[in-house]
Design goal:
The protein is an alpha+beta fold and 355 residues long. It is built from eight helices and 15 strands. The chain folds into two domains: 205 residues, HIT-like (HIT family, subunit A); 121 residues, HIT-like (HIT family, subunit A). It is 28% helix and 20% strand. The longest helix is centred in the C-terminal third of the chain and has 22 residues. The two termini are 24 Å apart.
Length: 355
Amino acid sequence: MMAYGAHRAISLFRYGLRSSDLPTMSQLRLDPLTGRWVVITPARSERPSAFATRSLAVQADTSKPCPFCPGNEEKTPPALETLGPGGDWLVRVVPNRYPAFEGNAPMVVQHKGPVFTETPASGTHEVLVLSPDHSASWADLDDESVNMVMLAIKHRLQVHSETPGLRYSQVIVNSGREAGASIEHPHGQILGMPFVPRELLEEQAGFSRFAGNCLLCAAADAEADAGHRVVISGPEALVTCPYWSGMPYEMLVSPLSHNSHLHEASDSELASVGTAIRDGMRKLREHLGDVAYNIVFHVAPYRTIGCYHWHVHIWPKVTTLAGFELGTGVLINIVPPEFAAEELSRTESLRSATG
C-alpha cells in the first residue's frame, strides 16, 4: 500500500503542482462559516484508493415492493408535488410516513425540572424521490431530471416559507447506510422545523463576522483566483474543495449570484447548481468508487435579517469519526483539499487518457 507521501509526490509530478500548493505538515485551518478549527494532517493519510466504499446493506429486507418505484404510488401518502412530462413523473415529493416533525402546535417551551426542557416537535417532514429509476443516484440524473429535482425543492421551500410556525427548512440527501439512508431507492428529505438549528446559527454568525462583504461571495472569488481547490467552474455555480475542508474530498457548491434563499433563486441558477452537484458526484464516484455520502443544502432561515448566501455541502463518508472528533468537535482531514480538488478535477481527463 503506497503511503500518502509517495502518492503525493507522484501527483505533484503528474499534475505539475508546486510543493507550496500542498501542506507538508499538520495545519489548523479556521472554518469561517462555523468559527470552528479543522486539522489538515497529510502525514496520517494513505492513498485515496484505500478509503472505504459503502459496505452495509441499506435495507435488511428487500423482498417487499419499493414504495418509491413507479406503480407503487399507493404505498406512500398522496404526493405533495409531482413533476414530469405528460402523465409520467420524474420527481415526487410525499409526506414521510415516519416524520421527525409534524403538526402545527405552537413552539411553547415547558420546563419540567432544572435541566428538563421540552416543546412539541411541530413542522413537516417530506420525502423527495429523485428519480423513478430504483438504481439511479443524483450522479445518474440527466439535465431534465436535475432541473425537476431543483424545481421541486424550490416549490416546497416556497410553501414552507409561507407556513406559519416554520422558521427553517433542511434539505438533505443521504446515500448509503453509512450516511443514514434506510431505503435503497434514491431520495432526499425536506424537513421544516419551528426553530433555527445550531449549525445555521453558527453560519449566520460567520457571515455577520465578515463585515463589509458576503463571506461566500468573497470565498468563491478567492478560490477562483487561487484555482487549485476548484473542482468545477459552471456558468452560475462553483464547486470547490474548500480551504477549510474538515473531511476528505468534501465539496462546497456555491451559487455565483448572491441570494439568501434558494426559493428566490432563478430557475437557471438552480439548474446550474443541480448540474454542478451531479457532475461533482460523478467525479467523486469515478475517483473513489461507490462511497456513501450526504448532500446538505443550507439556506437562510425564513423571515430573517442579515447577510447570508445559500449553498450546498457534499460530505463523502470515506473515514470514520473517532473519539477525538466526537469529544472535541474538531474534525481531522487526512487529505488536503488542494490534493483532493486536483484529483477530482482531473478525473475525466485521466480516464480518457488511460482509455
